[in-house]
Amino acid sequence: MSESQWKEPGGPAVSQAQATAAPGPGPWPGAIGPPVVGPPPRLSAQMPASRPPTPAATMGTWQGALRPPVFRVSQPRPTYREPLPVRGQSVAIGGAAGAAWMLLFGLIFNGSARSYVWASLIAGLVGWGAAAVLARFGDRGVAVGVAASTGVAVAIAGILVAYRLAGGDWLLW
Description:
This protein is an all-alpha fold and 173 residues long. 49% of the residues lie in helices and 0% in strands. It contains 5 helices and no strands. The chain has helices at 16-21, 55-59, 88-108, 113-137, 140-166. Helix 3 (88-108) packs antiparallel against helix 4 (113-137), helix 3 runs parallel beside helix 5 (140-166) and helix 4 packs antiparallel against helix 5 (140-166). The longest helix is centred in the last third of the chain and has 27 residues, at 140-166. The model has no long low-confidence stretch (mean pLDDT 78).
């Protein structure tokens, strides 16, 4: 039956040729028949010989009832850890060592503000060099503490230079 021959069920009477070709109202266009509820028919007799039947076809179960496989991992996931983590204790130890280093140089060269500033700059450069060596080959936490404390001490020396410069005296020459 084509679309041009289709008429609404219960509509005007159909012609004699149409009545003999299709008794009663036919299916809607594009419909194959009434809906089928339940699992599909067994496919084992209809399957080609070259392709093995699916487990659902051989067991007669509906494929919608199958569950996906459970993925099991035999090995645990790898953990990536820092080989030499920076710990708070080592940062505190490095800070104390750097502060002691800068205090020692400040006490040795306490003759004048100029000698204190130059000693602080030299001690700071040596401390930063030691922090670089520690960061590359030793404990990075201690390197952080040393670099931070020597940086604070050099900043204090810089503040002293700026204060004296504001008064008209340049300490570094």
